[in-house]
Write a structure and sequence with these properties.
alpha+beta; Rossmann fold; OB fold (Dihydrolipoamide Acetyltransferase, E2P); 20 strands; about 25% helix; disordered N terminus; binds adenosine-5'-triphosphate; binds magnesium ion
């Protein structure tokens, strides 16, 4: 067996079946079922209040009174208290013990598990090393930067070698640069340890960068679970399309269906070709979704679809510009264009085009 294979078996699988959690008359998690593979990096992505933390709390054992079931490593854990589920957890509002040194904070889970003093010292050293804080064991949390505190929290969650690590917005409070750094460290940590990681974030870039798969949450349900690529190129509905990346959507009526292509009528009676996944029927009202980077201006080749429009404005964004074009009285299409070509002034007439494969038919919103 290769080293990669051996390491991958260190992660625990997670099976969630029909998880439901109700607070009073509010359903926070609504029938969530989810299979996480051993060693997988799974991210839960979704807007505030969509049930991400509640799902994590149920897995960790801190949520009371859910229905459905949760198994970790093939074993039902519903009756087990948090400390017997063998899960490392970094909470959304991470709480280091302020009166304890960094080393004592990290040692805490080991002390609770009755590990011997000698062994604790060695494991704390390893954990500090893992998160690159070797020199800082004697400091108090208040003497650390935000990013260093996050790393201590991660070290504390990893120190007892759990096969499953739950991270709830661990980088949420950090500035962009530090986030970027810690994201890469987290990815490296995952690769090195081979454990299963479930991360919660509402940052789509973070989700796409880190994850094997992403579960997009909305109103207590999973809207879609897929690889970052599938999520981006084949979102199942408007919510996912809008939440992951930028999208341009406009209504259309299906006229013909042929294999995975359909002919649609949109934007003031014009005919277009598009790709579909959900099997629409002729006559059905749908939405057409485009990514702005797939929209071309004034190009002749490879554009099965094209329409005339008037430039509303062009926003300079460094390496590219975003050009908004009015293509009908009600519809605007945005295009991302690189800045080596000619710039577009408002009022200018342009031809807006895109390939049929880049236009996705989504069910009506
Ligand atoms: N103890 C509670 N009592 C009542 N309602 C609750 C409780 N905890 C959470 N909720 C509600 O359940 C819903 C889901 O909350 P949850 O914390 O899981 O959201 P989230 O997706 O983690 O959001 P955020 O991104 O803001 O952290 C929210 O509407 C929240 O107000
Ligand atoms: Mg939350």
């Amino acid at each position: 067996m290769t080293r990669e294979k051996v390491e991958a078996t260190l992660g625990a699988s997670v099976q969630i079946r029909n998880l439901k959690l109700i607070y009073g008359d509010f359903t926070a998690v609504d029938d969530v079922s989810l299979d996480i593979a051993p060693g997988e990096f799974l991210t839960m992505l979704g807007p505030s209040g969509s049930g991400k933390t509640t799902t994590m709390m149920a897995i960790a054992g801190f949520a009371q009174g859910y229905s459905g079931s949760i198994a970790i490593g093939g074993r039902r854990v519903d009756e087990l208290p948090p400390h017997r589920r063998n899960i490392g957890v970094v909470f959304q509002h991470l709480a280091l013990f302020p009166h304890m040194t960094v080393a004592d904070n990290i040692a805490f889970p080991l002390v609770m598990r009755g590990v011997s003093k000698g062994e604790i010292a060695g494991r704390v050293r390893q954990a500090l090393d893992l998160v690159q804080l070797k020199q800082l064991g004697d400091r108090l949390p208040a003497q650390l930067s935000g990013g260093q505190q996050q790393r201590v929290a991660i070290a504390r969650a990893l120190v007892f070698s759990p096969p499953l690590l739950l991270l709830d917005e661990p980088l949420g409070a950090l500035d962009r640069k530090l986030r970027d750094t810690l994201q890469l460290e987290l990815k490296e940590l995952h690769r090195k340890l081979g454990i299963t990681i479930v991360l919660v974030t509402h940052d789509q870039v973070e989700a796409i960068l880190l994850s094997d798969r992403v579960a997009v949450m909305n109103d207590g349900r999973i809207a879609q679970i897929a690889t970052p690529t599938d999520l981006y190129f084949s979102p199942v509905n408007r919510f996912v399309a809008d939440f992951v990346g930028e999208s341009v959507c406009f209504p259309a009526t299906v006229r013909t269906v042929d294999g995975d292509r359909c002919g649609v009528e949109a934007l003031g009676g014009q005919r277009f070709q598009a790709r579909h996944l959900h099997g629409p029927r002729p006559g059905e009202t749908v939405e057409i979704m485009l990514r702005p980077e797939h929209v071309r201006l004034d190009e002749q080749r490879g554009m099965e679809n094209a329409i005339e429009g008037t430039v509303i404005d062009s926003i300079f964004l460094g390496d590219h510009s975003r050009v908004r074009v009015a293509v009908s009285s009600a519809d605007t299409i945005s295009a991302v264009v690189d800045n080596r070509g000619t710039s577009r002034g408002s009022g200018e007439r342009v031809r807006v085009g895109w390939a049929a494969a880049d236009a996705l038919v989504l069910p009506p919103n």
